[in-house]
Amino acid sequence: MTIKTINDLDKLYDAGVKEYNGMFVCPVCEKEYKTKKGAESHVSKRDCYDLQDMFKSTQMELMAYGVYKELIMAASPNANMDIRTYRKSPYYNGTIRFVLFSNINEIAEQKQAYLTWLNEFKNCSNINSMLSAAIKESNLREFRLFLQKFPQFIESETYYKRHYDKLVSDGQFFIRSLEKAKVSLQFILNAPDFPFEQVMESMDADYQIRFEELANRVLTEVV
Questions:
Q1: Could you tell me if residue 143 is inside a domain?
Q2: pTM (2 decimals)?
């Protein structure tokens, strides 16, 4: 199974439950349910195909296993959480997919905060709903805006010191760092040693527009 295949399956899941001859059918495995609620509950788990053939005993699986342990521990601290239990759990696919999504979107350092945000602000009260919501780009964009509006949750100073030279010299890196909430807009505007006007003047017009759009969203949109 390839990443492209996973993306194709996502599109099928996103299309939702189908109805044939009075039965409600999963668009991926074609399992039939008598009620729409039962079918939707099945589809929401996104686990009716097996990712173990692709990821078993890989670094990706170990990272997903770490996410699994954190989620299970929060719900049931005394639960059995060894790797064998994980591989048989209904959360295997969801955690693998979340780690893939995290790596592609560069949120590895923010994933715990992201999951907490989903729980508290998106009413993801169980693990399946949280893992399903976590891989939606619309939720990630909203989470990043939330971080910019509450910059105390961003490790801005560490990122700023580590990447200062590139933030000053590379317009694309600068705007992407803000869009990804790696550094807060507030921190940049208040940093006494950051040549903000120089950076803005040297950036391509497209990046300047993106900066203005982000600044307007931070100032005006409600989260």
A1: no
A2: 0.79
